[in-house]
Structure formats: structure tokens, C-alpha cells
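Re-run with default settings, no changes from the original entry. Doing this only to confirm the output is reproducible before filing.
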Amino acid sequence: MLSFLPAPILGIVSMLLFVIHTIVFFTTMLPFILLKVIIPHATIRHYLTRAVMFLGTAWIDGNSFIQKLTVKVKWDVQGLEGFSPKSSYLVISNHRSWTDIFVLQHIFNHRIPFLKFFLKKELMWVPVLGVAWWALDYPFMKRYSRQFVEKHPELKGKDMETTRKFCAKFKKSPVTVLNFLEGTRFNYEKHEKQNSPYHHLLLPKAGGIAIVLASMGEYLTSIVDVTIVYPENKPPMPFWDFLKGQIPTIAVRIRKLDIPKEFLGQNYEEDEASRKRFQEWINGLWREKDQTIENVFKEYNVKR
């Protein structure tokens, strides 16, 4: 363990190890990525993606090992039983920090299929990782503001169209689709600006997972509702804090939910009644999640 190092030095060492590890694994992925660029055949490209995902799983194992080597963390995880890598899941989670992605990959690796989550299109240009995400078939979404769409109505529904396209691709083999419903990381400034009715959460955005359920809900085994809490830290929490060993406890509460059959095949965009029922259902989940976060804070004698 290197956690005895002073925080700034530990952060630099941790970052270097993660970067070197990522570059090494990207190098092993590169031949498969290049073949995927060159070969247009859909079936071959599918198996090339599977090869990259196999290497991606090993990369996550390496990241977990680096964390154990460098950062001392108390993992408080409940509800991680009864999953299978041969089943397909929709994972929904709150979003507190970029550390959330590491947390989800760490706890679910080998237990469920490789996590796929929707990314902002701008992230495609992140060095090394952008190309790897493309090769892993991560969906890249172009986000438009409401004002921009009003000026360019031809762009309305483009993000939903992208969601449907990738859902069709996800049906080919077991998959886990991850969605951070808040759409952005929580902080108190955003919370106040939204006038959120929840104490510990931003407003959920239901459209993305509504399309996932409508497009491929019958292929999913269950919805996995994940609540991530860093009880001893206040947001915002940059990933740098994690690298420095300044996130001592990570609490995760997991529960499996049945797929609501009433929402399968529904037209969320056009059917106002269906859209209202779905939003009410999501709001109910969010109220329960808000209470779960409150319960974790009480367990750790923390007031927020």
C-alpha cells in the first residue's frame, strides 16, 4: 500500500499508474480498433468489439488493483448478489463525481456484462480514451440546448434517434446500459438553480431510459437501481480527491427492479399520457433514492 505517501505525491503516483496502465491496454486494443475501422462487415466488426471488450474487462481489473495498491478505501456495498454476465441490464444511478464511473466498473466487473454508457460527443476527442470508447460501441450523444433546438427545429429528437440506433445494436449480445439520470454531477449550486424537490439529488431526466425500455426492454433481465454516496465528502468531488486518497468511504446501495411492462414499446416522445406516467414512475424512484442517501448519512452520523 502506498497510502502512507503525502496526499499530493500519492495523487501524482496514482495518476501516473492509471495513465501508464491505460496506455498499455490501449496499445493491445489498437490492432482490433484498426481492423474495426478498415473492415465494413457488421458481423466481423461485432466480434472485434467483443475482443476490445474482453481487453476492457482486463483493464478494469488492473484499475482495481492500482486502487488497492495506492488508495485506502472502505467499500460499503450492499445488494451485489444474484447477477449474471449472461443477462442484460439497465443500470440507473445518481451522479456525484467522476469517481462514480470507477466505482461502478469496479463493483460490477465480471458480475454483469461490460458497462456501456451514453457520452457527450465532445468526449470522443479525449486522447486515447475517446478512440477506446468508440471501439467499445459507447453511444456518443450531441446535446443541444432548448433554445438552440427552437432555432433549429430539424434537430429535435436527434438524441432520441441516436439512442434507438444503439439500442438496436445492443440486442446482439448481453449488455449493460448505464444511465446517470441527472445528466450531470450533483453540486449544491445546480441543486438550487433547479429548485430540486429532492434533498440530495438533481432532477432526473427520463427520456433516455424511456427510449431504452421502449426499444429493448424485452431483452433486459431487470433494472439495477444504484445509489452512490461518499458520506465523508461534500460535493463537488473531483477525481483528483480520489487519487489523493481523500475519499475514505464509498457506500453503494443496489436493488434490482422488475421491468415495468406498461412502458415497453411505448412512444415516449409522442404519447403524452405515457410520458406523464413514466415521469411519475421515475420521480417515485428518485424519492426512494433520496431517502436511501439520507439513510446512509444517518448510518455514518453525517448531516447534510
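The beta strands are 74-78, 89-93, 115-117, 119-120, 140-141, 176-180, 222-229, 249-257. The longest strand covers residues 249-257.
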